[in-house]
Design a protein that fits this description.
Length: 514
């Protein structure tokens, strides 16, 4: 009996030893992923404290130490940052399909009716369908041509306003012009009062959009440490977001009602082209809003929320970005009189006594195009592009990029990368003369519009507006600083789009050939 017990105990021990041995040989857990290098993380917040006020600059500094492919933990969110052309190519081309979704952030989700739009929608059938609709109804060459007269009229109006009041807040003026053009193209008329504010300051829907920008660039705990999301209520951010959402929603409702009301319907049907002095009704056939409502009526699954969310994309994309490029281009031209003179000579030499620059002339301005590229290289308007999220795990340069990782491509840092650019801090448009490097998403050292599946669909509209506005500003006026000012500061404001911190105030002197 005792022998049997000893034998059983021995067999049990043998079994346990074998089990332990085998479980050691066959690891039950996957090996830890080999993540790209990055700074040391703190408990709970990870690397959140390293983002600073201007994340594109802080991340650029960090990438100097940790390399162009860097891994951070922002709160509990795994994040990879690409800061060179090669690293960007990996995410926007080689692994574009694996990394072309968008994270659902607090503000973008709310303002896009739960990601019912194009810009913040996750990758999938809904995004594909809405993007296609937008490309046909707003971004196609046909539509861009249709809106040409609106752009030319609004830029001419801007030039006349400046001639009347030569002490100009160019930042506000440009924002108003691009907002007016977007409103007239997409909604059929202007929607705010230009002259209500001082010195070109905007009022009405424009103010709402400024707040929208602040919300999209604002910090929400819920986006990084979900367990602390309740702090967003205490900081007042939730209430601000809700107020902004309600303001935008009432604006969309007004526009929709106007487009559905019989008077507007008649105006649209008869395709009137009445440009009134007040700019209150300026329909030119079907505008984008009419088209979206038509599609919504025909396709049951396109909701009113989809329509409103797409409008938000068009407004944000259309107003803020192009004006930022002109703002920084003029800033750099003021700091570089040689370049200013050369650009003015080109425009004035080709346009001569015509009195204004029209869109048909833009292809002839080779140097001006270089100025625009150089301004976008040094001042990428959306410095971290729009954040992406990986859908699959994949490898980059031997490092693991897990699924669900947030991807930030630092276009601002790439534009200043010594590996891609000679003397990157210098504003030197000549670097593009005779170079094939372009902004259209093929040359990863210059990607102000992003690249790959999510590339900006409004690139063509944006570029035309920037070139038209800049060419007219350079043609019509000589520019100086206000009295007592010797130089222009270069500080950037906080936000998704990087504007100047202080408005660009300049004095315009009318130029004429005779
Ligand atoms: C100079 C002008 C502009 C610049 C620099 C710019 C920049 C960008 C960037 C960087 C992205 C993100 C690309 C990515 O994720 O890879 C983007 C996306 C987008 N932009 Fe623009 N943009 C401009 C003009 C416009 C205009 C005029 C519109 C519309 C009227 C517009 C509408 C959009 C939309 C809807 C998206 C989202 C695309 C998607 O996620 O599929 N943009 N833009």
């Amino acid at each position: 009996m005792a022998l049997t017990i000893i034998l059983l105990a021995y067999l049990l021990l043998l079994f346990i030893s074998l089990f332990l041995l085998l479980s050691n040989l066959i690891p039950s857990r996957k090996p830890a992923p080999k993540l790209p290098p990055g700074p040391r993380k703190l408990p709970i917040i990870g690397n959140l404290h390293r983002l600073g006020k201007l994340p594109h600059r802080s991340l650029h500094e960090l990438s100097r130490k940790h390399g162009p492919l860097m891994f951070l933990k922002l709160g509990s969110v795994p994040t990879v940052v690409a800061s060179s052309a090669d690293a960007a190519r990996e995410f926007l081309k080689t692994h574009d399909l694996d990394s072309c979704s968008r994270p659902a952030l607090t503000s973008s989700s709310r303002l896009s009716y739960g990601c019912s739009d194009v810009g913040f929608s996750p990758y999938g059938p809904q995004w594909r369908e809405l993007r296609k609709i937008c490309i046909v109804e707003f971004f196609s060459t046909k539509r861009v041509m249709m809106f040409q007269s609106i752009r030319e009229e609004e830029v001419e109006r801007m030039i006349n306003n400046i001639a009347a009041k030569p002490d100009v807040n160019l930042s506000a003026t440009m924002l108003s012009v691009s907002n007016d053009i977007t409103c007239r193209s997409a909604l059929g008329r202007r929607y705010y009062d230009h002259d209500g504010g001082a010195a070109g300051e905007a009022t009405g829907v424009h103010e709402i959009l400024v707040e929208t920008q602040a919300m999209l660039g604002g910090f929400f705990f819920a986006d990084y440490i979900p367990a602390l999301g309740w702090l967003d209520v205490l900081t007042g951010m939730r209430a601000r977001l809700q107020k902004n959402f309600s303001d935008l929603d009432s604006f969309y409702e007004t526009v929709i009602q106007e487009h559905m009301s019989p008077t507007t319907a008649t105006a649209t049907a008869t395709a009137t082209a009445t440009a009134t002095a007040t700019g209150k009704l300026q329909h030119r056939g079907e505008d984008t809003m009419d088209a979206l409502l038509r599609i919504q009526k025909d396709a049951n699954h396109i909701t009113k929320e989809n329509v409103k969310a797409i409008l938000m994309n068009i407004f944000l994309g259309g107003s803020d970005t192009s004006s930022t490029v002109v703002e920084w281009a003029m800033t750099e031209l003021m700091r570089n009189p040689r370049v200013m003179k050369k650009a003015q000579e080109e425009v004035r030499g080709l346009v001569r006594t015509k009195g204004k620059v029209e869109e048909s002339e833009l292809p002839r301005f080779r140097y001006l195009k270089c100025v625009v590229k150089e301004a976008m290289r040094l001042h990428a308007p959306v410095p971290l592009l729009v954040h992406r999220e990986t859908m699959q795990a994949f490898k980059v340069n031997g490092f693991d990029i897990p699924a669900g990782t947030r991807v930030m491509v630092n276009a601002w840092a790439i534009g200043r990368d010594e590996g891609s650019w000679e003397k990157p801090e210098e504003f030197n448009p000549e670097r593009f003369m005779g170079s094939s490097v372009d902004v259209r998403g093929h040359d990863f050292e210059l990607i102000p519009f992003g690249a790959g599946r999510r590339i900006c669909p409004g690139m063509h509209i944006g570029l035309v507006l920037v070139e038209l506005a800049l060419a007219n500003l350079l043609y019509a006026f000589d520019w100086g600083l206000p009295e007592g000012r010797e130089e222009i500061d270069m500080e950037e404001a906080v936000g998704v789009t990087t504007h100047r911190k202080s408005a660009l105030r300049l004095i315009a002197t009318k130029w004429s050939l005779v």
